[in-house]
Amino acid sequence: MTTAFDGLPPLRQVLEAHGLDPRKALGQNFLLDLNLTGRIARQAAPLEGATVVEVGPGPGGLTRALLAHGAGKVIAIEKDPRCTPALAQIADHYPGRLEVIEGDALAIDPASLCDGPFKIVANLPYNVGTQLLLNWITGPNWPPRWTDLTLMFQKEVAERIVAGPDDDHYGRLGVLCGWRTDAEILFDVSREAFTPPPKVTSAIVRIVPKTAPLPARLADIERVTAAAFGQRRKMLRQSVKSVGGEALLERAGIDPTRRAETLSVAEFVRLANALAA
Ligand code: SAM
User: What is the mean pLDDT of residues 251-266?
Assistant: First the structure.
C-alpha cells in the first residue's frame, strides 16, 4: 500500500476506500494535495501544542497537516457521517490528539468544545462559510477565546471581509470585521486545487481579534449598517431614515449627503453610538 509523508494513505486512496464521492449540498470541494494543506496549516502558526477547532475535516487533508505540524489537539466538527471512518484512521495514527464531533458547526459554539485559548482553521463549506464567520465574530464576549482564524473562503467573500471604505466589496461584513478584528488575505487558491473544482477562485484569510474594538453595542452597529448598506447607492439622509435620519447623522457629526460605502469603521461606530444616545 502507498503511504504519504505522514505514513497514512494518499487522500485519493482515502476517498476511494471510503466511498467519499463529493456532495455539492455539503459544500464538499476537497483538497487532496498535502503540500497545499501543509501550506495552509503553517499560516496558523504557532501550532506547536495549540488547540485547533477545524470545521468540516472531510477526508482529513487539512486535519493531517495540522497534526503533522504539531497541533496539540484538533477538535474537528464534521456533518457528513461518511467521513467518520477516514477520520478515525487519522485519530488512531495520532493517539489522543484528534477528537471528531459529528454535527452541524452552525449549531455548535466552538468555545464549548475546549478550555483555554484555541484557533479555528478550516477549508469552509462555501454555502455556510459567511454565516459561520458571523457566528464567531458576533459573540457576546469580546475578545473571544479564539486567538485567530485561518479560513478558506470564495475569493469574493474574502474580499468583502477585508474591504474598507471606497472599495466595491465594502459592506456590513467589512464593517463588522473591521470593527472587531484585523483581517488580511494571505493567498489565493486556484479552482484546480480542489476535487471537484468549485466555480470560482478561493482565498485564505487570517483574522485576529482586536483586543479593544472602539466601544459600541453590536446590536447598534448591526442596525446602522443594515440601514446604510440596505440602500448603498443612496445618500445617508435617505438610507438611514428608518433609524433616525438627519437628526442621527447630525448627532454623529456625519455629512448627510455622503453614502454608506464612504464611511470608515470609526464613523459607523459614531453612528451606532448616536443611535444609542
Ligand atoms: N477540510 C476538507 C478539505 O480541505 O479537503 C473538506 C473541506 S470541504 C470544502 C467542507 C467540509 O465541510 C465537508 O467535509 C462537508 O461535509 C463539511 N460540512 C458542510 N457543512 C457543514 C456543517 N454545517 N457543519 C460541519 N461540517 C460541514
Answer: 98
Burial 79-115 (b: 16+ CB within 10 A, else e): bbebbeebbebbbebbeeebebbeeebeebebbebee
Taking the model in full, what pTM does it have?
A: 0.97
State how far Cα 166 lies from the chain centre. Answer: 23
Mean pLDDT computed over every residue of the chain: 97
The protein residue whose alpha carbon is closest to atom 19 in ligand 1 is: 26
C-alpha cell at 190: 486556484
| CA–CA dist 146, 118 (Å, integer) | 5
28 pocket-lining for ligand 1 (C-beta < 6 Å): yes
Radius of gyration of the chain measured on its C-alpha atoms:
21
Place of cell 486545487: 193
Tell me the pLDDT tens digit for each residue of 93-137: 999 999 999 999 999 999 999 999 999 999 999 999 999 999 999
In percent, the amount of the chain with pLDDT more than 70 equals 100
Q: How far is the CA of 125 from the centre of ligand 1 (A)?
A: 5
ipTM: 0.99
Q: Is 273 annotated as a binding residue?
A: no
Residues 6+ apart with CB under 8 A from 46: none
State the distance from the centre of ligand 1 to the C-alpha of 26, rounded, in angstroms. Answer: 7
Question: Which residue's alpha carbon is nearest to atom 17 within ligand 1?
Answer: 56
Ordered structural domains, the chain, with CATH:
11-209 (3.40.50.150), 218-276 (1.10.8.100)
Q: What is the pLDDT of residue 139?
A: 86
